[in-house]
Amino acid sequence: MTHQGSCHCGRIRFSVDGDIDSALACNCSMCQRRGSLLWFVPREALRLQTPDEDAATYTFNQHVIRHRFCPVCGIHPFGEGTDPKGRAMAAINIRCVEDIDLAAVPVTHYDGRAS
Predict the structure, then answer these.
(1) What per-residue string of b and e applies to 56-66 under the rule 16 or more CB within 10 Å gives b?
(2) What residue ranges define each of the domains in the chain, with the CATH number in brackets?
(3) CB 13 within 8 A of CB 5
(4) Is residue 93 a contact partner of residue 35, using CB atoms and an 8 Å limit?
(5) Cβ atoms within 10 Å of 9's Cβ, excluding its own
(6) Is the Cβ–Cβ distance between 49 and 15 less than 8 Å?
(7) Do β-strands 107-110 and 23-26 pair in parallel, antiparallel, or remain unpaired?
(8) What's the per-residue H, E or C state across the chain?
(9) The whole model's pTM is what?
(10) What are the mean pLDDT values of the chain's consecutive 10-residue runs (115 residues total)?
(11) What are phi and psi for residue 104, nearest 5 degrees?
(12) What is the pLDDT of residues 16-46, one digit of tens each?
């Protein structure tokens, strides 16, 4: 299934392939403040519909995850990094995905503060 998503103002739009069967809520210093629900997919499943340079990037701590956000409205639609096996991954903020029932998505809580 292909899903559509965007930041609040629409400057960053994307499509992503896959079934949203779960999400992760993390309590690290970034995710707790942001309140995103993350769905992890291979990076090639995410296709930007707007120019890559329209999204700003923030890194912190070990600087291995590129947190992408809109410089206009401030919304964080996705992040980019690699999994433990070295594969390129995207962490989609499902709160930015259109037409899904958030209450129907099982959420796993991850203790990012302890990591």
Answers:
(1) eeeeeeeeebe
(2) 2-110 (2.170.150.70)
(3) yes
(4) no
(5) 11
(6) yes
(7) parallel
(8) CEEEEECCCCCCEEEEECCCCCEEEECCHHHHHHCCCEEEEEHHHEEECCCHHHCEEECCCCCCCEEEECCCCCCCCEEEEECCCCCEEEEEEHHHECCCCHHHCCEEEECCCCC
(9) 0.93
(10) 97 98 92 93 97 94 87 97 94 97 96 82
(11) -90, -5
(12) 999 999 999 999 888 889 999 999 999 999 9
Residues in the chain, overall count: 115
Query: Is residue 87 within 8 Å of 98, Cβ to Cβ?
Result: no
Q: Which residue has the tokens 């993390």?
A: 26
Which tokens in the block code for residue 30? 């970034």
